[in-house]
Amino acid sequence: MNLILNIKAKILLKEEVVPNIFLIKLLAPLIAQEAIPGQFMHIKCSQDYYPLLRRPISIHRIDKEKGEIFILFQVVGEGTKLLSQKAIGDELDILGPLGNGFNIYPQSQKIMIVGGGIGVASLLALAEESIRQGKEVRVLIGALKRELVLGEESFRSLGAKVDIVTDDGSYKHKGLITNLLEEYIQEGWLPDQIFTCGPKPMLRKIAEIASKVNIDGQVSLEEHMGCGIGACLGCVCKIKTNLSACLPERGPVCRADTGRRSQSGNAQAEEKNNSKEEYDYKRVCVDGPVFKASEVIWDD
Amino acid sequence: MTKQPRLEVEVGGIRMKNPVMTASGTFGYGEEFSPFIDLDKLGAIVLKGITLKPKRGNPPPRIIETPSGILNAIGLQNVGVEVLINKKLPYLQKFTTPVIINISGDTLEEYVELARKLDNISQERGIAGLEINISCPNVQKGGIIWGTEAQLTYKVVNNIRKVTTLPLIVKLSPNVTDIKVIAVAAEEAGADVLSLINTLVGMAVDISLRRPKLANISGGLSGPAVKPVALWMVWQVFQTVNIPIIGMGGIMKAEDALEFIIAGARAVSIGTANLVNPKAAIEIIKGIEEYLVENKIKDINELVGSLKI
After folding, report:
1. Which of the two ends of chain A, N or C, has the fewest CB atoms closer than 10 A to its terminal CB?
2. Tens digits of residue pLDDT in A208-250
3. Cross-chain Cβ contact A252/B60 below 8 Å
4. Cα distance between residue A199 and residue A220, in whole Å
5. pTM of the entire structure?
6. Interface confidence (ipTM) of the complex
C-alpha cells in the first residue's frame, strides 16, 4: 500500500484564476514527495458538520523540491465554497495522496493530454512529468468560453504544444474538443497514449476515439465520495470485468444495462433486465480515479 | 501520579480494552485504516456487512450529504463470506482486538448458513462475535424488513442462535414504531447484545433535475443529525432489556460517546466519523479516558446508564 498521510498543510498562495475557479498552493513536503500525477487529496472544508465529508480535490502540480502542492478547483457546492474562502496562512486538514495516478509507459513517445473544463486540474502535473521523461506532449484544453480557459500558459511554459477549443468559439477553435482530437489523429499525429479528464460525454467520446485507433487511453473519473480510502464503497463506477481474469476478490460479476435508469422503478431490477456487458462496481477512490478508458462502462 | 481509569468493558462475553468499536460499513475490513491508526488500540472492530455470496451493490450515486449527515445506499456490496474468511480475516488475526462479523441475508436460510459457516471457523480465524443486520428485506415475505416486526426478529435471531455459540449482537433498526418491542423480541430469542441504531431511512431530491439524489432513491441517514434520535432509543431500550447495549448514531467526538454511555450503552460504535476522520475512534478513546480522569471516575462501567433523572 502506498503511504497515505493525514496532515495539516498551510496555504501559501490563493488566487481566483478565472471566475469561480481557484488555485491554492500548499506547503506539504511529505505529500509532495509521495504524490504522482493523477492522484488526489481528500480535504476537510468545513470546521463543523456541514458539509460533513471531505472533498476529493485533484493534485494540480507537484513541486518536490520546494515541497509544495497546487490544487485547482471549481466552486460547485458548499464544500468547495468554504475551501475557496480559506485565507493564506490557514491550514487545511488533508488526507493524501490518494488513488492511482496516470500510468505513463516508458516506451511511449507521444503523449496527448485532453482536459475539459475543470478537468484540466489533474493534468498539469502529468504534462510536467511526461516532459521530464522526454516525451513529446500535446495538450488540448476545452472551455465554455474564453474567460474560462484554464492552464494555457502553464502547459505552454512546460514545453507542451497547446491548443484551445471553446464551445462558443470566443477563443481559438470553436466546437468540440473531441473533433480537434480526431483531426490531429487524421493528420497523422498519432499519440502512444491519451490521458483525459473532464465531463463524462467528453471522456466517453475520447474512449471511443482511443479504441478506434487502438491506442492506450486513460481517464480520470469522479464520483460522490465518502472516506476516500476504499472503506465505505460510496464512490463507485462501472468497470468491465474479464471473466477469465476474474479473481474472487474482484467481487460479483454482473451485467450492464443498456438503457437509462428508470425514474420511478427499482434501478437494480431494471439493470438486470437490460443486461449486456459484464461489470463490477469499482471504487473511484482506490481502484481509480484513473482507469483505462477501454474498461469503463459509460451509461450515464 | 493518579491511577489510570479502567476502560475495559465486556459485552455479551466479548472482552474489550475500551468501549470504542467501529461500526459496520464505515471501517471496511479494517486494513484500510491501518495507515492511520493502530488497530490494536480499538475496543473491537465490526467489519463491513457480509453475505453468503458476493454482492454487487447499488448503482451510483450511493452517498450524498444532508445537513450534518450523510445518506448512503451502498446496497451491501461485499466480497462474500469465502473471500472474507480466506483473504480478509487473516490480516486481522495479527491484532488482539476482537473482530465481529456483521451478517446479512435475503432469506432465513442464508442467515443461518452464514452463521454456521462463521461459527465453524471462528476459532481458526479469530472471530469474537456476530452482529446480525436485521435491516435487510426478507425476500420470502415480500421484502418486509426483518427488524421491523417482532416476530420476524425473533425468528431470525432464534434460528441463528441454534447454530452458533458465538456472542450474538442484534443490530436494531430505528425505522420502527416502538423499538422496545423489537429489543425484547431479540433478547428473548437469545441475543447477547443489542446494537443501535442502524441508519434512518431518508431521501434527498435534486430540484433542478427533479430526481432523487441517490440512484436507489432512498438511503440510510447517519451522522450528527441522527444522534438525538439514537440516544433516545438507547435510553429507552436500556430501561427495557437486561442485556448490554452498543450505542451508536452520529458519534463524532468523545462527548458524544459519553452521552451514549451515560444513557445506558456499555460500548459505543463509531461510524460516519471514520469517513471524515480516520483517527476518530482513537481520538474518542483518548477523550473518554480524559473525561474519566477529570471526573475522578475509576471505571468506565460506573458511568454506564448513570443518567440522573
Report:
1. N
2. 999 999 999 999 999 999 999 999 999 999 999 864 343 333 3
3. no
4. 10
5. 0.90
6. 0.92
